[in-house]
Amino acid sequence: MNLAQAVTTGTFPGTGAPITGTGDLPDDVYEGLWECLAGLADDIGANLPLEVPGYEALHEAAAPGTFPTTADALAFAEVLLGPLHPDPLAEAPDIRFHTVSASSTSWATRTVLPQVAPDSPKELVRAKLSGNQLNNFAAFLSARWRMSDWTWGRLDTAASLVSVVATDKRLQAAFGDVTDLTALGELIAAEMAPGPYFMDLWAQDVIATPGVERWDRVRNVLTAVRQREILDKELPFIAQLHSKGFKGGNRPPDQLPDPPPLSTPEAFEKAMKSFGEIGSEEVGQLIRARDPRRAALRTGLLAWPTLQPTGKAKAHLVQGLLGALKPLVYVPPLFGMVAPAYALGAGVLMWIGVAFSAGQWSSLPGHIPVCLYAMIALVGLVRQWIGPLWLRIPAFVLVAGPPIALWQLRGLPDPDTPILDIADRQRALIIGAAFAVAAAAMLYVGTDRWLLLPSAALIAGVLAGLVQLCRVEPGGWWAALALYAALFWVTFVLPWLYSRPRST
What we know:
Elements: H1 3-9, H2 27-47, H3 56-62, H4 70-81, H5 107-112, H6 121-128, H7 133-136, H8 143-165, H9 168-175, H10 181-192, H11 198-208, H12 214-241, H13 265-279, H14 283-286, H15 290-303, H16 313-329, H17 331-338, H18 340-358, H19 367-385, H20 389-395, H21 401-408, H22 424-446, H23 453-470, H24 476-493
Helix pairs in contact: 2-3, 8-12, 10-11, 11-12, 12-13, 15-17, 16-24, 17-18, 17-19, 18-19, 18-22, 18-24, 19-21, 22-23, 22-24, 23-24
């Protein structure tokens, strides 16, 4: 088919006649036109001589069995380059795309992460970046992680820019056929004024890698110079944030720090070590620190509304049901995964409170959710504190402890044993105290407004004690209601205990 004639006359495959008017064209018109364009590009790529510049992509796409195909390549080019056209009829501008990737290697990578194999991109990215965990959202948990990832971004960008600008052709035109490495280094230092680090890094590179091609060596050293300048600016901030290890430097400082420069080689090496340590941290280790743990808890609480449907009558009914279930089925398990030690302590206290309310150390249904909370907390504790997988597997045996206790304690105490047989007011006081301390342990994780914490926890205990005083007859359901009242208050009051935005 003559594509030019079809376009100019308005006759396309499947139409049978010229198209007139301004109405919408049928879909098969566009499909046919696209197929004709792809076929024309295939012919150009297959038959045009290889020495004609500018058509290398068509040559590659036209090869049989390759991806992308010609049609895919045209679609990609339209999506990427189409918005860059100032005029729909103008020629495509001479624009090239270059990737800045964390998987690239450079002087900074070899210096900061010598233990990572350069031919393993996945391990290289994991060792560099902390924030690529949690689907690339983990950097929101720590200012140190954001600072580290930002610095690696600058370092990798410097390496990419040097590789784009300092091509073999440009270096050959600038420095000619000088083969002596000492003379070449002095010539580059005189012509480009690349900075005070150049000759030292050039000498180190010549000694460390004697067989490297000269223009590759020039790019390596120029990259090292620019990366060293970046590290001189960023490492003092990283070293100050990391001075307390993973437990400090996670919260953005109230005032922008002004650390002194790294004036000695020892200080520079120590800061480089801190830089490498940040990249090796895992989320499980980080949330053992107070600020990231609080941020993770608040982020988890924001996830619950995303489960709720939108709409009118039926949606409101489901939203109300999920809202009522949140204190019982979502908030305590979330605490167990984010702050397992505190959640486990709260679980023990809630177990005691339910036991005094029901008059038994193991009762239904009150102790069932508490048992599940304790199991989740134990899982979180193992995941956070035990790193190797081969040690985690036997440690998970601890998870069976709460259900075993639930089974073994059934029917206790014996009716003839007066351990839990006390006056109602004393019982209510013990129950209130247990739930108040449990609430304090949970609220401690999510707040830094410490003056409000005691009164908020006390109200949780008062609610549980009032439920106990108002019960009609003893039983596990009243104990479950006391548990729900305390958890409902914790869920309700926690957002009010968030830290307020700092004034600037």
